[in-house]
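Before a computer can learn anything about folding, someone has to put a protein's shape into writing. The outcome of that step, for a single protein, is printed below:
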Amino acid sequence: MISNDNRQVIAVADPAAMAEAAAERVLSRISENPGRVAICLTGGSSPKKLYQLLGTNALRSRIPWQRVHWFIGDERFVPPDDPLNNMGVARPTFPDRYAPAAHIHPIPTSTADPADPDRSAVLYEQELK
């Protein structure tokens, strides 16, 4: 097995500095890729400040919205308007305001049978493809 270990530890002073470092990393990754870009967002409360930063005038103007697609890497099986829905937390902060609607790819937690998370997973698999 070939190992390509490019991991590094980035130490920051506090959560605000962590969000700023993460935002710069996202923007750097986007600028390094001239074609279509796929960004996988994470859930929970940790990335909220990052999402707020990406929606500010200073940072959103650096995002080529027409070529960036936004995905979610984890989701709770709750409706999109539930406060625990990860994409539901991210969307109003920046993707819904600036990204083309076709470039936002939530995990479908309400279009499938609410009692069938496996069906929701199949639908998201199709979206990813």
